[in-house]
Amino acid sequence: MPALPQELVDYIIDYLWDEPLLLAKCCLVCRAWYSAAKYHLPREVVVQNTASLGAFVHMLVSKENRRYCRIVQTLDVYESSERPFVHTLPLRVRGYFMPRLQNLRLHGITWKAVQPHVLFFRFLSYFRSVLDLSLTKCHLKRAELLQRIINALPQLKRL
What we know:
Blueprint: H1 6-14, H2 20-27, H3 31-37, E1 44-47, H4 50-61, H5 66-69, E2 74-78, H6 89-92, E3 103-107, E4 110-111, H7 120-124, E5 132-136, E6 139-140, H8 143-152
Parallel strand pairs: 1-2, 2-3, 3-5, 4-6
Helix pairs in contact: 1-3, 2-3
């Protein structure tokens, strides 16, 4: 099969500048696509539902994307009111895959009906490089849950 000229590959991938998960998938196609896509990969990742979480997890465990995982500095997670998933986040997204993750932002957590998984806090402790934790519009059942989140992040400097 004939290869596309690199200029054409670059031009096509330039249109995906705002789709980080698709860019990560492009990195898996071949070296030419990886070279074109890596310049657009952001240092901030946004997860908004279980589908985007699954795609992000797939990207993290891919051997070809390990280099990208090392540059992620911010993880923004927006809880879904229809299908809550944040209570299992650290079990699916392993903190040691992102050694430079400094900012963890959790939005819209409601742990009144849904409780965090039993191993949530243990696996959250693998996010060893997180310095800044942001909780926006979060409703926790007890203050103890907030304290456990804070205690699980060993390098936390700012809440």
